[in-house]
Structure formats: structure tokens, C-alpha cells
Amino acid sequence: GPQIDMMLRKLKIKSSFVDGMRVTTPESIKTIEMVLSGSINKEIVSKICSAGGNAIGVSGKDGNLIVAKKLRVGNGDKKKGKKIQDLGLVGEPIGVNHKILKDLENSGIIPVVAPIGSSLEGSTYNINADHAAGALSESLRASRLLLLTDTVGVQSRKGKLLSNLDITQSQKMIKDGVILGGMIPKVQTCIKAIQNGVEAAVILDGRVPHALLLEIFTDRGFGTMISNKLKKG
């Protein structure tokens, strides 16, 4: 996000958001792809390799890893004052070539996927990173989806961290305007992933050192876990 914002400002290209997703114009898509598939992707790959991992950066366009179609936001219900929002060249995943990921995994390679996809007609789409991660987790039949953010997790109206939510509660919080901005696509991704076979999804504070390790290897847990049923205790 911030890196794209900075580059678009340098090039004097205007940018706006709808429900936490960047409206993408033909003018901005090339810059967005350059930042996501180029500098950001390679920076992450470099950090993983420096830490002893064996990583390779790929774009969702490579080998039709992520096939996408145009994303539209809203339900078009004029009676409720809602309309379809055109986000431009923003796509939603409709297919994943998980064989590429499996082949890399079997070779001991960590794939770092830039959230850029292609349509069946060859158009390039900017995909929300959370939506891309969710689609990959569903395709791989992952037991858990972990999303990193720069907040503590999903919060109540009073700012209290909500450690556990079920799908119904999450949907209601979006409808009631409790969940806003960039947290909307994160929670929507968690809901969809669970509905498609992922056991649970966790929204974690990526600012916490070793956040992923703490979530995976300890009973402590933090952030917000979304699942079909509330965790007791």
C-alpha cells in the first residue's frame, strides 16, 4: 500500500479507495504491477533468503497462477440506496493453478506471490492481497489462513480487541459499519475461505515481532480468529 501510494504520487497519478480497495485505472495498473511484482515482491524474497529460507518471487500472472475477473462492489439495490461500484481494473480470483505452488513446495521452495492476476482474455487485474491469499489458501486446502495487518485485529466500536468471531458475527459487524476500510476485505476473505474449507482464519498484528511463530507454535494466540463456531474459553 504505502509503496504504491508513494510511487503514484511521484508520477502524479491520483488514487482513491472503496471499502479498503484501491480503484485501479489503466493509467495506474502498470505502476501498481511494477511495485507489487517488482520491488515489494523481491524485497520479501530477499528477506526470506537472508533468513535462511529458499524463496522465489512469482506474479499471479505467471503460469496463470491466479485467474481473475473484474470485481464489482455493492448489490445494486437502489431501494436501499446502494449501487454497484466500478473499481476499474480490480479483479477477484476465479481460479488458481495450485500445481505451480505444489511443485515449488515439493522442491523446497517458498513461493512469494504478487497479487496481480490475468483474466481469461489476458487483461491484467490488481487483486486485493487479502483476496489473493484467501484464494490460494482455498486452493491448497490449508488448515489455517493467516493475514497480517498493522492493527491489533478486529475491534469493537469501543476499540476492544475481539479475539474470537464466528461468520455470522463478522458479517453483521460489516453490515452495521463496525468493521470499516481495509479491514473489510480482510474479514470478507476470512469468511469466504472458511466457507470453502479452510478450518479457521486469523487476522494478526504484523508489527509484533515473530507474530507468525507465536500464532503457530504457542498456545498464546493473539489477534482475531474467525471460524464457523466460537472458541470456548
Automatic annotation (TrEMBL):
<keyword id="KW-0808">Transferase</keyword>
<protein>
    <recommendedName>
        <fullName>acetylglutamate kinase</fullName>
        <ecNumber>2.7.2.8</ecNumber>
    </recommendedName>
</protein>
<keyword id="KW-0418">Kinase</keyword>
<dbReference type="GO" id="GO:0005524">
    <property type="term" value="F:ATP binding"/>
</dbReference>
<feature type="domain" description="Aspartate/glutamate/uridylate kinase">
    <location>
        <begin position="1"/>
        <end position="204"/>
    </location>
</feature>
<keyword id="KW-0028">Amino-acid biosynthesis</keyword>
<dbReference type="GO" id="GO:0003991">
    <property type="term" value="F:acetylglutamate kinase activity"/>
</dbReference>
<keyword id="KW-0547">Nucleotide-binding</keyword>
<dbReference type="InterPro" id="IPR001048">
    <property type="entry name" value="Asp/Glu/Uridylate_kinase"/>
</dbReference>
<comment type="pathway">
    <text>Amino-acid biosynthesis; L-arginine biosynthesis; N(2)-acetyl-L-ornithine from L-glutamate: step 2/4.</text>
</comment>
<dbReference type="InterPro" id="IPR036393">
    <property type="entry name" value="AceGlu_kinase-like_sf"/>
</dbReference>
<keyword id="KW-0067">ATP-binding</keyword>
<dbReference type="Pfam" id="PF00696">
    <property type="entry name" value="AA_kinase"/>
</dbReference>
<dbReference type="InterPro" id="IPR004662">
    <property type="entry name" value="AcgluKinase_fam"/>
</dbReference>
<dbReference type="GO" id="GO:0005737">
    <property type="term" value="C:cytoplasm"/>
</dbReference>
<dbReference type="InterPro" id="IPR037528">
    <property type="entry name" value="ArgB"/>
</dbReference>
<dbReference type="GO" id="GO:0006526">
    <property type="term" value="P:L-arginine biosynthetic process"/>
</dbReference>
<keyword id="KW-0055">Arginine biosynthesis</keyword>
